Amino acid sequence: MQSYTTYKRLIAKTVIISLLASLSVAFLYGLYIKKRAVDDLARIDARKTSRMAFEALYSAMEKGWSKEDLDAIILRLNKVEPKMRINAYRSPIVAELFGEHSTDKQVREHDPMVLRAMKGEEVLTGDDEIRYLYPIVVKKECISCHTNAKIGDINGVIDVRFPVANLKISLTTMINSFIIFFVLFTIIIFGFLYYKLNSLLVEPLKQFLLMIQEIISKNDMAKRVSLKTKILEVKNIENYFNKMLDSIQDYYEKLQQLSDRDYLTGLYNRRKFEEFLDYEIKRSLRHHHQFTILMIDLDNFKYINDTYGHASGDLVLKEVTQIFGSNLRNADILARLGGDEFAVILPETPYENGYAVVEKLRSRLEGTPISLMFDQITLTASFGIAEYPEQGENIESLLTGSDLAMYKAKRAGKNTIARADQSDQEIAAEIQKKGEFLRRAIDEDRVEPFVQPIYNVSNGELFGYEVLARIRDGKRYMAAGQFIEVAESLGFAPKIDHIILTKGLQRREEKGLWDKQFFFNLSTNSLFGGEYVDLIQSHYARHPKGASHGGVTIEILEREAIHNVNGLMEIIEKMKELGIAFALDDFGSGFSSFVYLKYFDTDYVKIDGEFVKNIAVNEKDRIFVKHIHQIAKEFGKMTVAEYVEDEETLKILREIGVDYAQGFHYGRPELLGS
Q: Are 658 and 607 spatial neighbours (Cβ–Cβ below 8 Å)?
């Protein structure tokens, strides 16, 4: 297992090493300076002393002094510096001509240093005491007296001895030496520190930045940082960054799954299904294959929701998913398009084979009882088949053909299989008729905003209104449930949303209801259009008191949000910055509601009326409402209860602590100001 150090330890270690290195180098360099000074200065001083002694002796010899006179001169020289001793030894050449000195012969024969000097070598030796032997070389002027010698011979040796302490070291030499030492040592220390910091800090950080750039450029959330380091803090950065990447990757994968799949059933959603359909069309065109697509709509599913509740309806959808999935091939693509509508792609499957698969699905669904609370139900579905390329050669025509076939199966009595053909115009005409009705209603300005009041539960004051779409048809008004599905399928929903939002905001301005909150139901297609942001901002700009924002809330439905979770999260974030609030509508109707509470930064949670309307008589519904309210509060959301139809229900909501409520007890939807 690799051991790591900390920056604190590294710095302390570096300082201590640098200090020890400095002291060691200074000590060694001091010894070197001392040795060099002793060698150089001893040689210089000894040479000077020897020359002085020689010159004194030579001057005496020129005057004809005797050997005793010369010894007396040497004695006097030794007295000048008591700790310094000077001796002069004659060479054999001088002894031959002028006579042998009593001790010279013995010294020449037994002192190796003198022997070396007699051969013409300057000798410097000694540690505590310096000994310098200076050979006297015969020169031209010496030959007149020393007739038996020739130039270059050695006439004698001057032996100078003195203690090291007597040396006078040059101040300039010392200063220059230490300047050079300081500069060189500083360069070495800084080089060492640079190497350490570069290898232990800079290089790991460079690796870290390069890996981050690679992760960003390749959008590779699976890649992890690996740094070559022995520093604990750098290793901790690596570990924590990788843990952060783990969390981001997990979050990204969940968002990707929400973007591609239906959260409740785990099946592909409409957007992903259309991608697969486009791919299959291209593949079949290239290889000349036929394939079949199915549209499946559960029969009487609304009855299950109304009778057993939306939570039970979700369980049924999961059971149906299991039944369909277990009776399809691995290559077949099963998707939930929304609500109780499913779709299947059967690759490389012509109509005849596809029909056999559909009949198998139909019979298995019909023959599989589904346990629901204390009851068992049998479910059926209507199946529509379209074949490529017979019923269409592109996504739009295939989807339209399978939709028409499904409607045909519904009209034939449900629990049947139908195939659209060119002569089957009845259903298409019906859809076209409804579309024409919507188109005329929009063109003739018969789309009107109705409002239902929302009250503060605790003090009974009017809090705001939910704005609802209605179509005026003669003297009556059609509720949204009668036309919204066709509007969405034919692409009229964004136009209707625009009209309701425009008129609703206009009525708010006309009535001066700036202090009331207005709730609008906008489809996600409308939200992604972007023009509604400008519409709301213009409304805010007309506030009589110059308020910059506030008062508009957009409600999000689960069936809308499920198709593009990623994009919707971004839209909510941007629009909230502009003062636009958001509410989760029909909260609790599906298991995915709690997931959206986690990911969507909404301001309000509207509790599904299916739980609210029976809380006075149903203890389970009361528990549901209570816990939904508590969870919403934990997330910092305000709660709005729907379907409040009597005083007893309102009283229970007040005890629970629900913030706001709407329903027939407070007022039915109506034209604002009517």
A: yes
Q: 347 preceded by cis ω (within 30°)?
A: no
**Residues linked to residue 451 through DSSP beta bridges, in sequence order:** 467, 670
CA distances from 373 to 72, 259, 376, 568 (A): 138, 32, 8, 35
Q: Name the least confident of 307-311, 555-559, 563-567.
A: 563-567
DSSP string across 197-250: HIIIIIHHHHHHHHHHHHHHHHT-TT--------BHHHHHHHHHHHHHHHHHHH
Q: How confident is the model at residue 215, as a pLDDT?
A: 75
Answer whether 188's CB lies under 8 Å from 17's CB.
no
Q: What percent of the chain has pLDDT over 90?
A: 26
Q: Which domain holds residue 232?
A: 171-260
State the pLDDT at residue 471: 92
Number of residues assigned to the chain: 674
| 8 Å CB contact between 26 and 253 | no
- Residue 626's pLDDT is what? 93
Query: Could you tell me if 419 and 440 lie in one domain?
Result: no
11 found inside a domain = no
Q: How many CB atoms are closer than 10 A to CB 640?
A: 31
CA atoms of 437 and 433, how far apart (whole Å) = 6
Q: Which CATH number fits the domain that encloses residue 158?
A: 3.30.450
Q: Which residues contact 607 (CB under 8 A, 6 or more apart)?
A: 587, 588, 625, 628, 629, 639, 640, 641, 642, 658
Quote the CA–CA distance of 242 and 263 in Å, as a whole number. Answer: 28
Closest CA to 455 of 281, 673, 654, 600: 654
